[in-house]
Amino acid sequence: MIRLKDFSYRYRGREDFALQSINLEIASGEFTLLTGPSGCGKSTLALAVAGVLFSQFDGEVEGTVAVAGMDVQEKSIYQIADVVGLVQQNPESQFCTLRVEDEIVFGLENRKYTREKIDSLLTWSLEMTGIEHLRGRDLGTLSGGEKQKVALASILASQPEVILFDEPTSNLDPPSTEEIFDVILNLQRETGLTVLVIEHKLDFLSRVKPRIIEMGMGCILEPDRKTYPAPEIKVKKPAFKGSTEHPLLEVKRLRLGYQNQSVLKEISFRLEPGEWVSLMGDNGSGKSTLLLSLLGLVEKSAGDVWVLGENVDQVPSSTLGKNVGLVFQNPDHQLFASTVWDEAVFGARNFKLEESEFTGFTRSLLERAGLGDRVKEHPYRLSYGEKRRLNLISVLSYKPDVLLLDEIFIGQDRENAEFLLTLLSEFVENGGSVIMVNHNPAYYPEVVSRIFFLAGGKLVVDAPLREAMQDLARIGMDAYLPGGGW
Q: Which of 1, 198, 216, 465 is spaced 20 to 30 A from 265 at the CA atom?
C-alpha cells in the first residue's frame, strides 16, 4: 500500500537532508507505529506519503513515494486525498472553516456527495470520536484537545484507505487518548484501513503489538519491532521552598465563562516562590482559560487575581508579562521573529534588558536544546517539538518569576522531555514558580510539588503531590496517576 524507494528530501535553503535514502514498505491493512526523536523527519515522511510535501513545499527530491500504486509526485493533491487522509500534528493547520459541523463536511461537500450521504458520514464521524456535543460549536471556542478530535473526525468522514496520524493525541487527556486509540484500532480492524501512527505515547499502543519503525535523524534506525520499553524520566528534583508572607500569585473566588457557559467556578489558590504545580483535567475543563486569566488575557465574571501583590485588573498584561512568562498550547501562536535567534531573545529585548544580561544565557539554552546550529533559520522551519523548546527558551531568556506553561511537552520524545524538565528544575531551584498544564503523569511524580485538578469548572484537587495522588484515586481519576495507561 505504501512504498518509499531510495527516497531523500531536502528543504530549500537547508544544507542537510530532512530524509535520507528511505526504503520502506507498508502492506495493505497493516498497523504501523513510527517513532523517533523530535526533529528526526517523522512529520516530513508523513507529508511525503500524503503528497503534501510536493504540493505545498519547495525542496530537492530523490527517489519515489507510491501509495496504492500511485506515484504521489505525479498526482494532484485531490486525487491523493481520495486514498490518503492526514491528521496533522497541529489541528489548526488543516482547518478550512469556522464551525465544527462545517469542518467535518468540508471534504464531503467538495466531493459532491449527496446530502443524505453527507449527513450520514457526519453523524458517524461525530459518534466515532465522541464529539456529538460539539457539533454546533465555533472552532475558535474549542480547547486544543477538542480541536484535535474535530481534525480526526473530518478525516474519518472521508473514509480513506490509508490514514496517517501525526501525534493524534498530543493535546488529549488520558481518557480521550485511550478513546482515540480505540477508535483507530476498531476502524483498522473493521475496515482493513492501512494505518501509520507517529506517536511518543508508546505504551498506549503496546497492547496491539503494532509494527514499530524507529527513525534517527533523517533515516530508518531500527529493524521492525513488536515491543517498546516504557520511558523512564530521570531529573534532579528541585528543593522546594516553604510558604512566604507574600505569594507570587493569589486567586480568590475566580469565575469566568464564554457564550453564556460557565468555565471556571469559584477558583481560589496561592502560589508561593519555588512551587511547581501540575495542572490537570479533562479536555475542555478550563485549564488554558485559567492560565490566561492569571495574566488578565481573558475577562473574568467575578473574583480577584493578584500577581506579585498587584491586582491584574489594574495592571496592563504587557507589564505583568515581564514577571509572568506564558507559553501557549500552540507553539505557532507565539512565534514573532524571522530567525530562531531573534525569536529566542524577542522577549528580553522587548522588556528592554541589556544584551549582556541575556545573550550568553540564551545561547547556552539554545545549544542545550539542540538548536545552536539553527539560529539563522526561520522558526517555522523547526519541527513542532523544536518550536516548543524555542517557546520556553524565549520566555526563560528574560528570567521571569513565574512560568505558565500550556502543554509544554507536546512533540517531545523522552530525551527532550527530560531536558525541559531539567530546565524547569533549575528555574524552580532559583526561586521561580511553575504552573504547567500537563496530561502525561509520567512527567510529574519526581519533580512537581503540588497538583491542581479541574473538573466541572471547579478545582476539585489542590494538594501536595502524594496527597493529591490519593485524592485522584479516590475520585476515580486513575488514568491521571503514574502507570495509569502511560
A: 465
